[in-house]
Amino acid sequence: MTAADPAEHEPSIGEPAGPGHGAHAGGQDDASAQDGTPAQGDVEPHGVESVQEVRQEALLLERALGGWRGIIDSGLPTVVFIVAYLVTGSQLAPSLIAAIAAGVVVVVWRLVRRQSLQQVLAGFIGLLIAAWFSSRTGRAEDVFVPGLLLNIGYGTAFLVSILVRWPLLGIAMGYLTGEGTAWRRDPQLRRVYAAASWIWVGVFALRLVVQVPLYLMGAVAPLGIVKIVLGWPLYLAGAYATYRVLAPVYRAKRAAKQPES
Predict the structure, then answer these.
(1) End-to-end CA gap in the chain
(2) What is the helix (H) or strand (E) element at residue 127, kind and residue range?
(3) How many angstroms separate the CA atoms of 98 and 139, rounded?
(4) What per-residue string of b and e applies to 194-209 under the rule 16 or more CB within 10 Å gives b?
(5) Rounded to 5°, angle at Cα 128 from 172 and 84
(6) What DSSP state is assigned to residue 185?
């Protein structure tokens, strides 16, 4: 079904929570680890990686490797819809009801586990919109239209941001790391953020190139399968590719700050 492409991911239960959340011996060290500031009395020597620099790379890796929960959240309603559509002999109404029920199960499960609902609620709202739209037109393939429009919007936004030299990836990383727009003063970062943003133009374009012909043919089952494959799995591949592009630049800049021996 249709879920907003995730641009945010939080560590789930059982996953590494990232820097600053490990166990420490002292209470003050625990507090310091929570907010990313040095413990009282500790002095960060010149040349040591700053919290912001480490956070940049940690955020990229977190998004590249931590999305198994999103695969379940966004994929389950789609799987249920396709199975119900085939089992009921292409009956749209019961298939939509089954998919919505699956979405409710996911929401309740996250509530019981006391996990963040940010992603799953966005996906559930998208599911309801898709179900409503398809029920109005009476065409099963129209359940995928909101998702197609979302990919057009995201892809266009990334492309325009590159053309105006304000790549969205740089804006996003600046916001997430607290760096703001400081990256704009670094020509190398501007280039690498633009290059990495092209990865996301490719992600959204690939989805459209594959899914639009299936939609026009009314191939509901293949369209559902392709949506799952090109959903979170492709997103994670794009996130990991982004990490591979940006991480060497971050490391090189940290190395350049190290004092000469």
Answers:
(1) 57
(2) helix 118-137
(3) 16
(4) bbbbebbbbbbeebee
(5) 120
(6) G
Confidence of residue 27 (pLDDT cuts 50, 70, 90): very low
- Please choose, from the candidates 255, 207, 222, 249, the residue with its C-alpha nearest in 3D space to the C-alpha of residue 60: 249
- Residue 124 one-letter amino acid: F
pLDDT in tens, 101-115: 998 988 888 888 887
Is 90 exceeded by the pLDDT of residue 157?
yes
Mean pLDDT to the nearest integer, 171-187: 86
| Vertex 95 angle, CA 97 and 98, to 5° | 40
Q: Would you state the torsion angle of the CA atoms of residues 76, 154, 67, 215, taken in this order, to the nearest 10 degrees?
A: 30
C-alpha dihedral over 195, 197, 201, 207, to 10 degrees?
110
Tens of pLDDT, residues 137-155 = 999 999 999 999 999 999 9
Closest CA to 149 of 169, 120, 126, 128: 126
**Contact indicator for 11, 25 with CB cutoff of 8 Å:** no
Nearest one of 149, 155, 133, 157 to 205, comparing CA atoms:
155
The pair of structure tokens assigned to 42 is 């500790």
Give every CB contact of residue 208 below 8 A, 6+ residues apart in sequence. 148, 151, 152, 155
Which tokens sit at 231?
């959903």
